[in-house]
Amino acid sequence: MRAIILALAVLAFTTVTADAQTPNARVFNGGAGLILYTIKPGSTADFDMVLNKTKEALMKSEKPERKQQAASWRVYKSDTPAQNGNVTYVMIIDPAIKDADYNIVNILNEAFPAEIQALFKAYTEAFASGLIPINLLPVVDYAK
Description:
The protein is an alpha+beta fold. The protein has helices at residues 2-14, 44-60, 64-71, 104-111, 116-125; strands at 32-39, 73-77, 87-93, 132-136.
């Protein structure tokens, strides 16, 4: 049963169209975005590998919005363990590219369709809990 659910999840996450508004797209149109991940302590190397493959996918893409995404997307890791020794990763996207899809699985599938199942497995099995995407609206810019 678990294998069937995983197979259905892989199919759901790997169906990609050219439209950024796909049902599983992650779009930040508020100016900036933040994504919080809680990763199992023994899975950080796998998660880091997926992050590096995502960077590679963004950089090799012929889509101009993918290169724009790469220019404004940063990933940080907490140096303090979370509950149960889990590791918190924070993605900061500022500015967010309007209508661009930030779903890592979709980005990886565009660049590495032959590897997507292994990448999806490494990505999802690294989670200690789900991810939390946050659309951010500007309030005050202290630099101005």
